[in-house]
């Protein structure tokens, strides 16, 4: 049985003289359309009859997927009073399609060239002619009637918009524009179809680097070297994404890292950079890569919050292009949007574009001229990103590395890429990320009969796991950018419908990754690539998954990567560092929220102004054995001038030290009702919904250290600590019974530390 659906769009009728009446007879046309009538029925019947005849001749009707539709831009113009030229509901017969000359231009395109600039005309011609062969993009363009009317102008406008999109894509692709993109795609698609192995001829071996399994004497020794370099770092935040996948309607860097202070990721990152900056004598720059979806929101967030304490000139924003064209077949034919044939179907090109942007915007060269020696790349929602930066810097200095991948231990065959040194017969070397499904067969074919196996001493694979946190020595990095313009090698990963690899399941595209930078290094610099491996609970806990996806991952034994786990891991990392120096901290029992099991506390937030890396902890807690924190406790400390000598905490405590003030907390005992996580499936608050709980701050002890040494301590709901007198240079637990109108309320004191509130990558 064959079911034929025919859609007929009647947007004007030719008069006997062959002239369109649409422009002058809109009212009459509207009346006919509204009344239906026999003519409408007979037209539909005739079209149905023609379709049945096509079936009788074994000519299938047009596929619904390929049936053209009226472009959204035309609809919009029509709603504003302009009626576009008719867009046929079915493809015309072959002999009625616009014919093309040797240049690949159809009559419709040739006649439309006058609408475009000279450079746009050149682009159209280059795309239509060999070897690009993209004339199909313009197959539906009809030769203009020559009559100036609102409908013809509406059609011209959508054509201009379409070519403007092509022009934007052409300008944003660094390797030869769209013609270069198509050429590269044809090569990579041919290699994919024929099964070419990009690792053929390369032999793997264990790369240069150092693994740390705990914070010990060696850790501290290497970290100390790195602390001398941290004041010469520039920071690159790859933050191109929205939070839609997480169930969040805004940019991911605006998400709160945790609920104790509700500090956003971007605020936390900037506060950390400023903490490192305070150790030296120069401003440390930050570059943020945005996308078309996130750029305006990122700028708005920064401006509304006064750049979270940074000077505006410290921040550079570079915007990634609007994507690259999707490709529908092995001949690299560009795909049109299935819902609008006056629009190119585009897809992201990948975070490897950051290198080309840093080159084209002159960022790396400028930073080098400003005395910056290192450049660290980090992701948008990893709250543990900076705990190990000084350590990685120390490793880079120790091994004289041009590029250092901060990595995590991985089990053999674990589904995460491994940092691997490769060498070919010419003696060329590159240390890059090799995907896990490629690493084991590569090892087996290169003299490692057992493939990827765990080391007997460490229990882990000798090839550490890539987390896309990269540290570059700026001078060789900038030199490589000058040679390559930051263009990264690309790859293509089409999903085929058939065994012969001739048909795609869906359009594909070329991609590039920032961690492939070692492939463009040459000579001795190519050999100076290594890694720093540290346990993931100190350096990597991305928030990238929706809760329901995280539940499924956790059931499989994989880290869920959700908001609740990201927050819990931040608290846990701080506890681990404090415990490593001898603090007595009891972990809470695991709890489950919205299907995600975490260790909920104690919730400890040590702001970057207080401690910015493990080395700072011994300075701020000089008597760690005198620090005791119960499993149900919550602790927030902000400010560089405060030192905690002794503390017994069983409840909630917030210590805020004003800038320029100093004080010592000693013999402080706090016991109150504290803060409680309350299970909450709120549908209205997406921040709460993605976690499955809210934080009920039942009772809080607040201590504020002021510049003159006076300590104002309050306990909220109700006060229950005994008063203790306090010398000027030492802060002790004081219970103020009279409310001070010159001091901020506890909630205001907390807000003050946030400077007015609010891209993984695997």
Brief sketch in words of this structure:
With 762 residues, the protein is α/β, with parallel strands linked by helices.
Strand arrangement in the largest pleated sheet:
2-17-11-14-10-3-4-5
Name the average pLDDT: 83
The level of helicity is 25-40%
Which word captures the global form? Answer: globular
Strand content: 15-25%
Low-confidence stretches: 1-97, 718-762
Q: Main sheet?
A: 8 strands, mixed
| Topology, number of strands | 32
Structural class: alpha/beta
End-to-end C-alpha gap: 47 Å
**Radius of gyration over C-alpha positions, nearest whole angstrom:** 32 Å
Q: Count the helices. How many?
A: 22
Task: Explain how this protein is built.
It is built from 22 helices and 32 strands. By secondary structure, it is α/β, with parallel strands linked by helices. Strand 3, helix 9 (265-277) and strand 4 form a beta-alpha-beta unit. The radius of gyration is 32 Å and the shape is globular. Residues 1-97 and 718-762 have low confidence and may be disordered.
Keywords:
eight-stranded mixed β-sheet, alpha/beta, 762 residues, 22 helices, five-stranded mixed β-sheet, single chain, globular
Write the topology of this structure.
Elements (H helix, E strand, L loop, with lengths): L25 H10 L1 H20 L15 H8 L27 H6 L5 H11 L21 H23 L4 H18 L8 E3 L2 E5 L4 H11 L5 E6 L26 H13 L8 E5 L4 H10 L10 E5 L4 E2 L10 E2 L2 E5 L1 E2 L5 H8 L2 H7 L4 E6 L9 H11 L3 E6 L9 E6 L5 E6 L1 H9 L20 E9 H11 L5 E3 L17 E3 L10 H5 L1 E6 L1 H4 L7 H9 L7 H18 L3 E2 L5 E3 L2 E3 L4 E4 L7 H7 L6 E3 L4 E5 L3 E3 L2 E4 L1 E6 L5 E3 L2 E4 L3 E5 L6 H4 L3 E5 L2 E6 L5 E6 L29 H7 L10
